[in-house]
Each structure stands twice: as structure tokens, then as C-alpha cells.
Amino acid sequence: MNSAGSVGRTMALVHFFLGALLLFAVFPAAAQVGIYGEFSSSRINLANQPEEYGITFGGYRERNFAHLKALEFGPDLRMTLQTGSNGSNSLGGAPAQTLLMIQGGPRVAFRTPIARLQPYLEGLVGAGNSQIGETVPDGSPVPPGTPLNNKNGGASFELQGLGGLDLRVHRKLDWRVVEVGYARLFSTGDSGLTFATFSTGLVYHLR
């Protein structure tokens, strides 16, 4: 894999995300705007792979519709960056596990009888840039550091469904108690990569 090309694609994804997220903050209009940060982990559906750990941050806008007072709708945009060490059966070498995801899609939140609790569901699409697999140790016939069992390299199309629960702890602050998702990265020539994600964090309301 061309490392310079991979870095270029990664930076393009990051720049796109930051520009789009800025629109959430600059043009809140009449909708509620939330900016959040999460500690997140991913459990990769591959043998001998460790869990990935990192951060997720993003923003969403939501508003009510006149005839659906119990529901709030709007878009969510997020970025996740995670890394992990080699698995217990690793061949050695430098850690090969990295995962960058840029996603966006519709969000629906539900008003409950307990006003401080807000469950939500999301369906997201986007791109992922991943390096999942063991690496070759020194002394191997192939160049050291070459990824083995690599499931994705470079940008891949991604789908994710997730749900979570926010708890209002202040007029402008929520505790994101839990968020659970299931995602698939689609790569060329194989069935892709699937993984479950688990997160917790904080949400700040701009208005």
C-alpha cells in the first residue's frame, strides 16, 4: 500500500469532517445543536485481533415536527480514531491496528416520561481508513512491518447502525451513558470487515 497516498486520503477525510462540523456550530438556526466527545472501543470480528481504543467526536442537529412531539430528527456527523496493539498470537513487529472512520446520517431521538433520559437511534454511512492485521517480524522472508491478514487498506465504504442513551446532567450538558453500534467496512475482493463499537462520553448543547 502506498503510504503517501494513504496519508493523503486520511487527511482529505479529516479536512472534510472538520469543515462539515464547523457548519453545525456556525449555522445552528432554530434547531438544537449538540457537540459530543466519546471514549470508544471496537471489537473486530477477526481471529487473534485485539480491541481498538480511541476517541469519537462530532455533532448533531435536531428539531421537532409539529405532529410528532415525542420525536426529534436531524443529521449526525462524526469521526472516530482508534488504535490497538498486536494480538496474543501476533507474529511480532510494530502494531498494525489503526482505524479512522468519518460518518454521517440521520438521527432520531425519543422523548421519554423521564425527561432527563433521551434514547436515540442512528443509521450512518461514510468512509473508513483501516489497517487491521498482524505485522511481519524482523528476520522474516518478507519485509519487516508488512501487514499480514490485512483486511482493509486505504479508504473503504462503510455502513453503521447504532443506538444510545443520553442523560441530562445540566441545562447544556448530557452524559452519554452508553452507545452501541455495529459496522461493516466494504473492501475490494473480500467480504469486508465487521466490528461492534462501544462508547461513553459527554454532549454539550449549543442552544
Describe what you observe in this structure:
By secondary structure, the chain is mostly beta strands. It has a single domain (3-205), classed as Porin. 12% of the residues lie in helices and 58% in strands. It is built from one helix and ten strands; from the N terminus they run αββββββββββ. It has an eight-stranded antiparallel beta barrel. It has a two-stranded antiparallel ribbon with strand order 6-7. The longest helix has 24 residues, at 3-26. The protein is globular and about 50 Å long. The N and C termini lie far apart (45 Å).
Residues in helix, %? 10-25%
Spatially, the strands of the biggest sheet line up as 1-2-3-4-5-8-9-10
CATH architectural category: Beta Barrel
Number of strands: 10
Shape call: globular
What is the CATH class name?
Answer: Mainly Beta
In angstroms, what separates the terminal alpha carbons? 45 Å
Mean pLDDT: 76
User: Quick one: biggest sheet?
Assistant: 8 strands, antiparallel, barrel
Topology:
Blueprint: H1 3-26, E1 32-44, E2 52-65, E3 68-84, E4 97-110, E5 117-131, E6 134-135, E7 147-148, E8 155-170, E9 173-186, E10 193-205
Antiparallel strand pairs: 1-2, 1-10, 2-3, 3-4, 4-5, 5-8, 6-7, 8-9, 9-10
